[in-house]
Design a protein that fits this description.
By secondary structure, this protein is of the alpha/beta class. It has helices spanning about 10-25, 35-45, 60-70, 85-90, 105-125, 155-165, 170-180, 190-200, and strands at about 5, 25-30, 50, 75-80, 95-100, 130, 135, 140-145, 145-150, 170, 205-210, 215. About 45% of the residues lie in helices and about 20% in strands. The strands form three sheets. The protein has a five-stranded parallel β-sheet with strand order 2-1-3-4-5, with helices on both faces. Strands 6-7-8-9 form a four-stranded antiparallel β-sheet, covered by helices on one side.
Length: about 220
């Protein structure tokens, strides 16, 4: 039985989500604020977190950022804010998907099912294959043509980010939020410096510059 942590402060929505998720066969725990969410997360093991954005004490972004420092547990965010800025910020923190309030319960249940199925497949072999690269996030190791690459922690995270989403463009701001956190106040050109070093170790063709936007890994093999 999959276990879901529901983080939602509105009693009516708590009751609705708890009833539907349990009827669907999930084991559910419900908390009502960001601090309680972090305490419960530290005290248990969950297969998915259903996380409201507008929470007392610590908002959903803050909860997500703190959880992502130590876990890749799937996070599905509930939000009444459907603006592009909020969604980009969430995806920069590795939110797996969004559901906008008011939401359809069948759609929410399907999103949960798809995320859990995808995560089960990923967990069966966490190694990532991209062109001549094999990236093992558990071992923190990257191989190029079978030879280990000597990467710093930031370079490894950059490489994993790009290779996990070939063709997706990442702005400097998104990379800073994902790898350095939103409390980073330094020069955003630090991203350029790390990418320059990473390119030197990989060779040409792995990380492309999208002029005026950011960086990406190419979609297709060379």
């Amino acid at each position: 039985m999959k276990k879901i942590l529901v983080v939602e402060d509105e009693p009516d929505i708590q009751e609705l989500l708890g009833a539907y998720l349990r009827d669907t066969g999930y084991d559910v725990e419900i908390v009502g604020d960001g601090v309680a969410a972090l305490d419960r997360f530290q005290g248990g093991t969950f297969d998915l977190i259903l996380l409201d954005l507008m929470l007392p004490k610590i908002d959903g972004f803050g909860v997500c950022e703190l959880i992502r420092r130590e876990s890749d547990v799937p996070i599905l965010m509930l939000t009444a804010l459907d603006g592009e800025e909020e969604q980009l910020r969430g995806f920069g923190l590795d939110v797996d998907d969004y559901v906008t309030k008011p939401f359809s319960m069948p759609i929410l249940l399907e999103k949960i099912r798809v995320i859990l199925r995808r995560f089960d497949v990923v967990e069966s072999d966490s190694r990532l294959h991209y062109r001549e690269l094999v990236i093992d996030p558990d071992a923190r190791e990257a191989l190029l043509n079978g030879r280990p690459l000597e990467l710093t922690a930031r370079e490894f995270e950059l490489l994993h980010t790009f290779a996990a989403a070939p063709g997706r463009v990442f702005t400097r701001e998104m990379l800073l939020a994902k790898l350095w956190g939103y409390d980073f106040y330094g020069d955003e050109r630090v991203v350029d410096s790390h990418i320059k070093n990473l390119r030197h170790k990989l060779g040409a063709g792995y990380i492309e510059t999208v002029r005026g936007v950011g960086y990406r890994a190419g979609k297709t093999a060379r």
